[in-house]
Amino acid sequence: MSRPPFLTLPPGARAYRLATARGEFAVHDARPAGTHRGTVLLVPGFTGSKEDFIALLEPLAEGGLRAVAVDGRGQFETPGPDDASAYGREELALDVLAQAAALGDGPVHLLGHSLGGLIVRAAALRDPRPFRSLTLMSSGRGPVSAGQQERTRLLIHALEGLGMSMEEVWREMRRLDAEQGGDPEESILPTEHGAFLHRRWLATHPAQLATTARQLMEEPDRVAELARLPLPLCVVSGAEDYAWPVPELDAMAEELSARRVRIAGAGHSPNAEEPGATAARLLEFWSSLSPTSASATAPSAVSSPEPPR
């Protein structure tokens, strides 16, 4: 899971519930103090929330962009139903389209992290007109890596096969992290950060987790469809990634003629691990686009990887 570096909203940002045609969604909304150069909708990944983008809000607003991060249905502070079908890919894509429409800013830049990348590409493939560009962050062409699929199967089995509670699953995950050499203390000790991660986990709907976990293991390769989108595309990742290998992301970006950005020093969550560099590179991409580039022209082939480490 992504671990946001801090939890306090920056000056000028506010938390509220965004009313849409498909219900209300908890958001963090940061608006620029000066010239408004556009709006970006930030969609979090598996086990994540709007807080995963909290460190991007201020630099994006300073760059002239209204930045809106959202909890999807069943994620953290946005409630969701018990019906697993409500969390299917197309249902979540319709939510994103409704969120973009509710912002009332015309076409928006759309960014999805990890699972969020699979959701936002489904939204753009369904209807690209509400978007100025599409950015896939740490999100690949199809299923996650074999190692992550095994961990995901264990989670589904715990939730559905064993009928474990979210609290029981949380403790089991922490135990496995410790056995595998991880450091579970930040998620267990009574610190502000650890308490947030625990609270977020418990507030996430188990049906959302199980359904989207299957999506991570079964997602089809949609690169050929994406390549036909009339949107500028960008593929962002850290220098390393455990969910989708970086060489796979490189190849995907090339096939998409997408701008390729690698963030030095970051792993699967450059938005939380290296937010300053990530915001700067995103602003470079979005600033390079004309207001009419969203649906009028296809993206040009631009490659801008970080030097090898």
TrEMBL record:
Residues 39-275 form the AB hydrolase-1 domain. The keyword Magnesium does not apply. GO terms for biological process: glycerolipid catabolic process. Keywords: Hydrolase. The keyword Endoplasmic reticulum does not apply. GO terms for molecular function: triacylglycerol lipase activity. It comes from the Bacteria. This is Alpha/beta hydrolase.
